Structures are given as structure tokens and as C-alpha cells.
Amino acid sequence: MKSVKIFLLSIVSLVCICAVSCSDVKLVNNGYENVVIAINPGIPEDPMLITKIQEMVRSASNFLYKATKHRAYFRDVKILLPITWSSQPHYQRPSTQSYEKANVIIANPHTQYGDDPYTLQYGQCGDKGRYIHFTQNFMLDDALIQVYGDRGSVLVHEWAHLRWGVFDEYNDLVPFYADGDTYEATRCSKEMKGLKASCTGGTCGACDPSTGLPEADCNFFPDQNQVTSSSIMYTTGLPGVVDFCDNKTHNREAPNMQNKMCNERSTWDVISKLDDFKNNHPTNIASLEPKFTFLHAKDRVLCLVLDTSGSMSVENRIQRLQQAAGIFLLQIIEDQSHVGIVGFDSYATVIHELTLIESEDARKKLKSLLPKIASGGTNICAGVQAGFQVLRGDDGATNGDEIVLLTDGEDGGISSCFSEVKQSGAVIHTIALGPNADAGLEQLSSMTGGLQYAATDKLDENGLVDAFTGLVSGNGNMSQQSIQLESSGKSIASNDWFNGTVFIDKSVGKNTFFVITWEIDTPQMFIHNPNGKLYRNGNFEMDTVLLTARLPILGLAHSGAWMYSIQNGAGTTQIVTITVTSRAADENIPPVTVNAHLNQDTTSFPNPLIIFAEVSQGFLPVVGAKVTATVERAGGQPVNLELLDNGRGADAVRNDGVYSRYFTEFLGNGRYTIKVSVQGKDGIVRLTTRKQSHAMYIPGYVQNGQIHHNPPKPPVDRNDSQIQLGSFNRVKTAGACIVSQVPPGTPFDVFPPSKIKDLQAAIVGDAIQLKWTAPGDDLDQGTASFYEIKLSKSFAQLRDDFPNAQSVNTTDLKPKVASSEESFTVSENMELKNGTVIYFAIQAFDGNHSSALSNIAQAALILASPPPTSQPVQTIEPTQPHNTVVINISEILVIVGIVVIVVSLIISITVCVVTKKHQAVQLDMNSAHLQLKISRKGPAVEVIEAEQNQAVQLDMNSAHLQLKTSRKGPAVEVIEAEQSKWCNAEHFSTLLNVLATAGSITGLHYWEVNVKDIPSWAVGIAYLRIPHMIPGSKLGSEENSRAFLAQKEAFIVPNMTPR
Ligand SMILES: [Ca+2]
Ligand SMILES: [Ca+2]
Ligand SMILES: [Ca+2]
């Protein structure tokens, strides 16, 4: 069984033609051209924003040139200004550029969640991302340069995500990892120097010196001046960091996204092997100054170019064209657009010149002119050229205008107008209807950056309506766009019913339409709104010629469940469809939307297709939705596939609102069309913030041995105008993919299980437990046959020589179905002692193939140890005998305020990486001159004011709930169980601290503290009451408090500076 070792690793690294972003950016002679930076129409006009964009790009051009080792800079950048900004003589018309397709967008989130720049990136390693998002505040507020670094370097960091598909080298969730008997900050390169420190309220101390393991609030503070120049994907906030990690500097053990997604390859290794750099050599560029072009967005100018050839009369196509294009004209095209219509067969006919869409009458008039008769041949170029003629009607030009080209036929001459199309500067969206539409059609959309749709003749799939409904404006103004809530169809037997529910949520409701189509006889239609109001046939606008009924909902549609019941009154079976569209309820609150994408729009078997659906409200991801893709295949039944946001298989990041899945069930060559339906259930769906692919926020840096804190990140305002999501429905077509080279007959198994990216290992008690998510027989679908797990004490052995590493006995391990959680306890006997680090990796097999090697997980055991020497503290040799420690704080001149002594017990913690267990503490207070005694019950500490005339009072309101007062004065003992949690806001919540008060205002004072059998503890002075409720609050070394930390072996004076 386990002798099968066919490595088929390259299958998921795809030829990425158009990936998720169809940008026109090109690298020509070392210069990037046609980079588009677009400003959202919601941003008020501000010339300073343009200045700042130019400054950023200039800086980025230099930075990029250096980082790519003289291989690339920004040569040609277009700044796309919104229609809401006033016109200037030097502004040009955009051609194929739009806000929707821009590489960088400047936009404000509707709810304040900070100014983290980020890239919407959800492909695999090396795949392009969607866009870079900067907020207006990020662009204008120079104080943020200290937080994120120079804007130009931030742009290069994000550009690497967007253009080259590399990932972050820091990890907010796993900031440290074990390395021998200590731990390292997750970073690249490992040569990056800095201090690990735990800071609260500006006070810094060692990161839990009692255990050698980092606390939750431990941070890595890099040195301001670095010995290494790598890496940009770790941070852009340090002046000397100007390079990517390459094979020499890469830290492949760091548990970050780059290693996980790119098989532990360095960022430069990935970047330098991409198409951009394959035939590109370092060159001396005299001027790295980018050329800026200003483009001014305009309202849509669009021409429908519709096939009326003879074949359009079969399968009712000409009638379906009128239905679907009618929905486009009545409901989808935005107000203030200009629309014309051209029909073509062997020749083209201008049906109507451009008309301004400013009234319902204008819409209805255009709809009435849609072609009704089909005859003749197919001359696509004649249609396109007539379309250009119509588009010139407003301004003599075609750039920035759009054509919607629908055809069902073949045309040997389609390539004759390719060069004219390229020259036109217009965008052509293509709709291929039926199985025989010309194979060259999609070249017109791909060469102009248009949308690529296809529809079959299966009426119940409603594909033609979905294609026209997807043709919304790409200008970034979401409140204008029509949003499709429902698209469904069914073949209904005579007198049977077609029932369903559409949830209209509060983010939409304006301009809501229910549209029902049928084939033969008008059905009985019943629509109940959430208040029980019933709409019947008499409420609909009926079109008995086009067999369409349309119900406009006046005003704002009630939010909630709208139920429809449609009865087929015809004497025979007929197909009935329903489409519901709406618009944003409030122009200031973005609606919930879904964007559906394919990783490529042409694919040759056996490259799998990846389907992505991005569900969001504004820029906030929506998680918890049920997302289903329906794939219509060239020659067979449609396949439904649930898309998942679980960070496994095709899905890069868990809970980022991007739902993804591989599609492998190919059946024949031809166009595959993909539609995505999203259901959100009230109480299950929620909004979240983006967590990946953003520039790192550095908490601070180290200069001359001192930690300098950066300003805190702006707080997240969750009380904004945020509306509850509630239940919702959305539908969106993901377009079409042209599939080739599918072998005839039943396909043999070509797809291996997908790479396991989430293997985790942990020492639990005396054993090691492994966890991961099951891949499938075919990538992330089906069930794999078996697993092979190996272990090693060497990371390098597992990575480079997996076959020869020690096998783990997996006889009892049977794979579960894809996406299931797997867990396995390693039965091999291993000596687990301090400093043990064991690495694990896993492969899944399907009987024919093996998956790629998983991420490499580590199980580490680090017990209490002195803090590493890189702590931000000086280590002073002890001056007292071990174990029983008495310190005299005699050198602190207290000059401010009432002195508060804080006693902080740091309990011994035995740590096996994942489990922290509090152990009972034994104290023995045996010094003769102490005024106070230990409680007989056990662990305790007491504080003594040694100046006889000044009593020390412990403030038990401040004590951690595991500290109990002794009956005999100011002493505390540690108890195992907390009495209750969060019952008093005054209590320290995470550290075993208690405040003691001593009424000193000025003078030289000392106190004695007696402890025993506590491995480490701290005593100090707070000038103000230090905050309790903030997790980790404790004594530090700044204006609020001073502390002496102590361990059995040493005193530690945290970063003391004279006051
Ligand atoms: Ca024009
Ligand atoms: Ca995801
Ligand atoms: Ca397989």
C-alpha cells in the first residue's frame, strides 16, 4: 500500500493567465507601465491627495529598483480621479481603466477600523492579488509614516503581494517559535536584531523570564539600525530594510504565511522566477521618475451589440435575449448612462443611437426597440464596428466606452477587427450564448479587460439573465449599482408549485424588482412581504409577448423574508424563473456584496479551476455565510460545490470573507459557466476585519538600548453606523472559463490530494499530538487513501529529505472526508525534556498520487529558564544568598505623589508550549526581624514597611483573585482557585499582583520583602495606580512605576533610567 510514491507536486501551480485580477500592468524594459491608482468617488476633492500619491510613487519607484536589484521601477502610472471631482484641462478620458480594475485604490472604509494598508490577496503562491487599499488618512497623515514606514516602501511591500503573490513574513498570531531551548521572533531574516519585551502602558519588562516563553503581550522590537537589509515582507518601518529575503537570508523555519504558502521558499526566489523577471536583466536606468497621467472618470457610454442571425431563432434565443437585455435596460444600467443598440447578422444595423438614461420612459423605449427577428449569417466585426460608430455619437471617440457583445454563432472573420478593437480604447464585454458561439469571442473581452460571460440554453439555469445582471458599473459607487439577490429557475409540472424565500436585508431595498419569466402560459404568482402583504398577478407589469412579469416594489422594500409561490396553471410542464434585484438602502452605508472570480478564464485539463467568492460589506469581510457555486459544464448536468472560507486547500486565508474551492469535475471541452449563490443567516454571519497581507504595524523599535514606542494603532470604532447584517441572499455570476484537452470518456485520476497547510504539533502530557484538516482524493474533495507522517529533530531533513526521515506508525489512521478535522497521537517513544524540538510533516495519498509535503510543524518543550540575553534588561549578579532573598530598595528617591508599593508574584509555570499550568507555591517567611508572618495555609508573601513609624497596608481590592489575605496583617497567600472572575474592576486580572500603600511623599525609604520558594517575583513603586483591568498590567520602568524583578539566580533591573 504505502509503496506508492508518485510525486505530482506541480499540478496546482497554475499558468496564471488572468488570475483574479485582470490588470493591464506590463513590465516593459524594466519599467512597469499602466499601473492604475484610483480614488473612490466617496472621497472629497483634495489636490493634496494627488500630491501625496505622486510622492509615494516616486519614492516607491526608487525603492522598487533597489529591491529588485535594478530590474524594475514604476515608469508609467495613471491616476484615475472620480467623476465627482472637478475637471481640469490636463485630465484625459480613461480607456480600459476603471476603479473596479485599478491596482491601487484610495478609499475610506464606512466604519473606522484603522488605516492598515493591505492587499486583497487570495490566490496561491505566485498568483496576482486583486487590489491594494490605502485609506485617505494613510495617504495624508504623516504621523503614520512612523507607524508603517515610508509610503513608498509600504507600496512596494503591497506591490509584492499584488503583483508577485508573495506573503507576509511576520505573523501576528504566532509571533514567536521555539528554537532549541529558547524562542525566536517570527521574522525574516533571522539576522534581524532586536529585543523581546513585554510592554504595558509604555512600561516594558522581560517576556516572562520565569518560563523562558513569551507572554501574550510579548513583542519583538527590532533595532532601528539593522545589520541586515532583509526583509521588506517582514517590515517596511525600518530605514535600512530595503531588500527581500533571498535564499541566503531566508528564514524557512519561521511560522509565517510566506513559508506556509510558498513551500518555505524565499520571497525573492518566488519573485525572480515569475514571468516578470524571466527575461529581464538588471539595467542602469538613468531616471526612475515615473510619468503620471491623470484620468477623469465619466458616466457610462455603452452600446448593446446583439446577434440577430438565423440561429438566434432556435431555443427561443431571440426572445430570451429580449427578456434578459430588457432586465438590463430597465433595472441594471445606472441613471445618467448613455446607451445605444446595434443588431447584426451578415450586416450590422444601428437600431438606436446613444440615449441618456434619465427616466423610466427612456428605459422602456430602448427596451421596446430590442431586436425581435432573427435571420441571416454572423458577422461579429460588422456588429462591433457599428457599435463603435454609435459610441462616437457623443464625443467622436470610443475610449472608455463599453460594448456588450452577444452572439451565438461562429464567425471565421472575427480576428479581422482585433487591431481596431485594441486601438479603440473601448471595453468589450462578451456574452456567448449556446454551445456554438465563436471560440475567438473571448479574445475580444480579454484584450480589452471586459467581462467574459456565457449562457447555455438551459432555461432553468437563468444564465442569460445572470450575464446581463452582472454588467454593473465599475466606478466604485456601490450605492448606484444594482445588486442581484436571487436567480433561480425550475421546470414545473402542470398545477405544481415553485416556492422559495428571498431575504432582503437592511443594506439593500431601494429599486427592488421581482421578475418572473415562463415559457407557455402565465403562472399564478404570489409574493408575500415580511409584513404579510400579498402581491398577485394584478400587481405585476405583464408582458405577454416576452412572457415576463415584473413587480417593482415602491419605496424601500421591507427587510426580512419575502416568500414567493408560483403555480404553473398551464396544461403542460414549463420552466419558470425568478430574478430579484435591488440597490443600496442608504448611499452612505455600503450594501453587502459578492464578487465572484475564477483563477483563470481559460484552462487546459488537468489544471484545476479555482472558484472564489468574496463576500463583504464595504471593505469588511463577511464570514459565516453559506456560499454555493453552480458549475454548468459543456456536456452534462450542473455541479454544485460549496465554497469554504476555512484556510485549507484552495482557500488561502481562513475567515477573510473569501470563500474558495477547487473544481475538478471536468466533463468535456467548451465553456463552463459558474454562478455563486450566497446565503447569510441572521446570528451566524458577521463582519470581521482584514488580518492578512497588510504592512506590519511595528509596536516600536530599539535605539541605544532603549525601546521607543510607536503611537498606538487608531482604535477600532465598533459603534459606528454599522448596521446589523441580518439574513441576506446574493447571487453573482463568476463568468465563464474555456476548458480544453479534457480526455474523452471517464477521466482517470489525475488530481492528487491538496497540500496540508495547517499541520500542528503539540506536546500534551507525555505524548505528542498532531492536528490538521483532511485534504481529499482530488485536491480538497473526496477522501484520501492514507497518510504518511514523518518526524525529525532537524527541520532541514524533513524539508529536504522527507523520504529518509523517521516514519511515524500510522497503521490506525484512516483519512476522513475532505475538510474534516484530523487528530493523531504519536505513539513513538520520545524523550521529552527541556529544549526538545521535534518537527513533523505529512503527506496524503490517494492510491495514485501523493500530495505536496505539508507545512512543517514543531512540537517544542521549553521549561523555565533565565531570560535570553537579548532581553531589554541588564542582568545583575545576586548579592544575597539563593532561595531566601531580601532586597532593600534603598536607592529610590521618591519625589512624586503617594507611593504605592506593588508586589507581584510571578508564579512558576511549567510550560509545554500549549498548556500553562499554575502550580501551588510554597513560601517560607523565616526572617526574624520581619513584623509579619506567613499564613500557615501555605504560599504567601508579605511586605513590611521597615521604617517603624510607617505601616504598610495591602489593598486587597487590588489583589489578584488567587491572592488571599492572611489574617495576620499585610501578607498574602496564593490559593489555587480563583474565587470568581472579573467581579471587581479593581483586581489585577492576569498577574498575581497586589498593591500596598505607604504614605510617603518624599524622602529616602526602604521596604523589605520576604519570599521563599518562588522562582521569580517583583517589587517596585508606582507613582500612580497602575491599571488593573488591562491584561498583563504590571510594574515597569517609566513615569508610572519602577520595578525590581528577581529570580532565584539574579536580580533584574528593567531598563532603569534616572528620574
Ligand atoms: Ca464616445
Ligand atoms: Ca478565505
Ligand atoms: Ca485523486
Question: What features would you highlight for this structure?
Answer:
about 1050 residues; mainly beta; seven-stranded antiparallel beta sheet; 14 helices; 64 strands; disordered N terminus; disordered C terminus
What's the end-to-end separation, in Å? Answer: 72 Å
User: Which whole number gives the mean pLDDT?
Assistant: 82
Strand order of the largest sheet: 49-64-63-62-52-59-56
Indicate the overall shape. Answer: globular
Strand portion, in percent?
Answer: 25-35%
Protein described:
This protein is mainly beta and 1059 residues long. It is built from 14 helices and 64 strands. It has a seven-stranded antiparallel beta sheet with strand order 49-64-63-62-52-59-56, with no helix packed on it. It is globular, with a radius of gyration of 33 Å. It starts with 25 loop residues before the first strand and ends in a 6-residue tail after the last strand. It binds calcium ion (3 copies).
Topology at a glance:
Layout: E1 26-28, E2 31-33, E3 35-39, H1 47-67, E4 73-74, E5 76-81, E6 104-106, E7 118-120, E8 131-134, H2 136-140, H3 144-148, H4 151-164, E9 176-179, E10 182-185, E11 194-200, E12 203-205, E13 218-222, H5 257-261, H6 267-272, H7 275-278, E14 291-296, E15 301-307, H8 317-332, E16 338-344, E17 348-356, H9 360-368, H10 380-395, E18 402-407, H11 418-424, E19 427-433, H12 441-448, E20 452-455, H13 463-469, E21 483-492, E22 497-504, E23 508-517, E24 524-528, E25 534-535, E26 541-543, E27 548-553, E28 560-567, E29 574-584, E30 592-598, E31 602-604, E32 609-617, E33 620-623, E34 626-632, E35 639-643, E36 658-663, E37 670-680, E38 686-687, E39 700-703, E40 706-709, E41 728-740, E42 760-764, E43 767-773, E44 786-792, H14 795-800, E45 806-807, E46 821-826, E47 836-845, E48 857-861, E49 874-876, E50 885-886, E51 893-894, E52 899-906, E53 909-911, E54 916-918, E55 940-945, E56 953-955, E57 963-965, E58 971-974, E59 992-998, E60 1003-1004, E61 1007-1011, E62 1016-1022, E63 1041-1047, E64 1051-1053
Parallel strand pairs: 2-4, 3-5, 3-6, 5-14, 6-8, 15-16, 15-18, 18-19, 19-20, 31-41
Antiparallel strand pairs: 1-2, 7-8, 9-10, 11-12, 11-13, 16-17, 21-29, 22-28, 23-27, 23-29, 24-25, 24-28, 26-27, 30-32, 32-33, 32-36, 33-38, 34-35, 34-37, 37-41, 39-40, 42-43, 43-46, 44-45, 44-47, 47-48, 49-64, 50-61, 51-60, 52-59, 52-62, 53-54, 55-58, 55-61, 56-59, 57-58, 62-63, 63-64
The structure holds calcium ion (3 copies).
The site of one calcium ion has 7 residues, from loops.
